[in-house]
UniProtKB/TrEMBL annotation:
Gene3D superfamilies named in the record: P-loop containing nucleotide triphosphate hydrolases
UniProt entry tagged with the keyword Transferase: yes
This enzyme's EC code(s): 2.8.2.-
Keyword vocabulary terms for this entry: Transferase
Homology family: Belongs to the sulfotransferase 1 family.
Pfam families, A to Z: Sulfotransfer_1
Lineage per the UniProt record: Eukaryota, Viridiplantae, Streptophyta, Embryophyta, Tracheophyta
Name recorded for this polypeptide: Sulfotransferase
Sulfotransferase domain: residues covered: 39-297
GO MF, any single term: sulfotransferase activity
């Protein structure tokens, strides 16, 4: 496989996207062996796009008949979103043979996540009735979010400028970011009942509207009664950055990959990149975006 280095780690090109070699066998195994159920839902994203937030919002929305969002016993108050909505390929990574993880603990409708790009998803996933919700974020903010995340979880050295150069060339785990975005973007246009495309920035700006859109897409729209009794507002509040960042469950413990839960909650804002990226660097990424997204209808 073609090999490069990004963020101090070797990454390999598989089906036109870059992957860390240690994860690739389990990703391929997941794509080969995973059998979806008709009502599975997948949260998909390019890393650092708000996956954790969308996991929480989708969980709270889909499971609201079992767990009332305003009550003290809600699972999101006591468990990290990555525990409740696991990355499905990591379940295969953790299985000793990478083939048959025990998924029986996840109640139906099951909710999983993955960073795998759309063109690589397996036919059973694409051809079944299961649904996919994608969260997309401004490439500048995803990059800066990754930069902080990487500094927190790794002791490897490297400058922001070097990482930025690589990022602009598309050399980044699950990159190129533009093809990741565009794969799901096009799929959402071609199959609107199968793929819902959300943007981090829209969720920040108008969470009520976006949440209703998501519930409708998931075939569990909010009733007028739910709307009037504040269910939507409770979900938004429960999953808000301020609330989630303070919870003990998100300040202690680690993910399956031994990453502290707290590293998934940093600033939670749009536009923080201006504090880190120089005008010259910004010009470069703007040019890449202009070229890659031209005529796609996707803009930031
Ligand atoms: P920042 O580093 O810009 O703060 P992912 O979940 O895909 O790893 O993305 C992490 C980014 O989402 C981080 O961005 C994190 O702070 C932000 N985030 C996590 N929970 C959030 C929430 N409830 N609301 C808004 N942003 C959130």
């Amino acid at each position: 496989l073609p090999k490069e280095k990004a963020w101090g780690i070797p990454i390999y090109l598989y089906q036109h996207f870059w992957y860390r070699l240690d994860f690739l066998p389990s990703i391929i195994s997941f794509l080969k062996h995973f059998q979806p159920k008709h009502d599975d839902v997948f949260i998909t994203s390019f890393p650092k796009s708000g996956t954790t937030w969308l996991k929480a919002l989708a969980f709270a929305t889909m499971k609201r008949s079992c767990f009332i969002p305003s009550q003290d016993n809600h699972p999101l108050l006591h468990s990290n979103p990555h525990t409740l909505v696991p990355f499905i390929d990591l379940e295969f990574y953790n299985d000793p043979n990478n083939v048959n993880p025990d998924l029986s603990i996840f109640s139906e409708p099951r909710l999983f996540a993955t960073h795998i790009p759309f063109p690589s998803l397996s036919s059973p996933i694409l051809n079944s009735n299961c649904k996919i919700i994608y969260i997309c974020r401004n490439p500048f903010d995803s990059f800066i979010s990754y930069w902080h995340f990487y500094n927190n979880i790794s002791s490897r050295k490297g400058t922001l400028e070097e990482a930025f150069e690589r990022y602009c060339e598309g050399i980044h785990p699950f990159g190129p970011f533009w093809n990741h975005h565009l794969g799901y973007w096009k799929a959402s246009k071609e199959k609107p009942n199968k793929v819902l495309f959300l943007k981090y920035e829209d969720l920040k700006e108008n969470p009520n509207f976006e949440l209703k859109r998501m519930a409708h897409f998931l075939d569990c729209p909010f009733s007028e009664e739910e709307e009037n009794s504040g269910v939507i507002d409770s979900i938004i509040e429960l999953c808000s950055f301020g609330k989630m960042k303070k919870l003990e469950a998100n300040n202690s413990g680690k993910t399956m990959l031994k990453i502290d839960h707290k590293h998934f909650f940093r600033k939670g804002e749009s536009g923080d990149w201006v504090n880190y990226i120089s005008p010259d660097m910004a010009e470069k990424l703007f040019k890449v975006m202009e070229e890659k997204y031209s005529r796609s209808g996707l803009s930031f």
